[in-house]
Write a structure and sequence with these properties.
The chain contains 1 helix and 4 strands. The protein is an alpha+beta fold and 73 residues long. The chain starts with 8 loop residues before the first strand and ends with a helix. The chain has one helix at 61-72; strands at 9-14, 19-31, 38-47, 53-55.
Amino acid sequence: MSKYKLGDKSKGICSTCEEVVSTTFTHRDVPLDDESATVPGILAGVCDQCDTVVSIPGQSTPEIKRVMDQART
């Protein structure tokens, strides 16, 4: 698994633009799907056209899990 870093470029399918777009990895606050909490400052791939979070690399998973565990308690 490759590690992404701030500013790296990639491509992904943007749910807002509804097409394959160029993305840039940056730090973002990302809400959990159930909106029970927000994961602050994780690395995420963001659409270069509309600024929507398109992807989250595996290296951000431990922080997401930590926030999810806290939200359950």
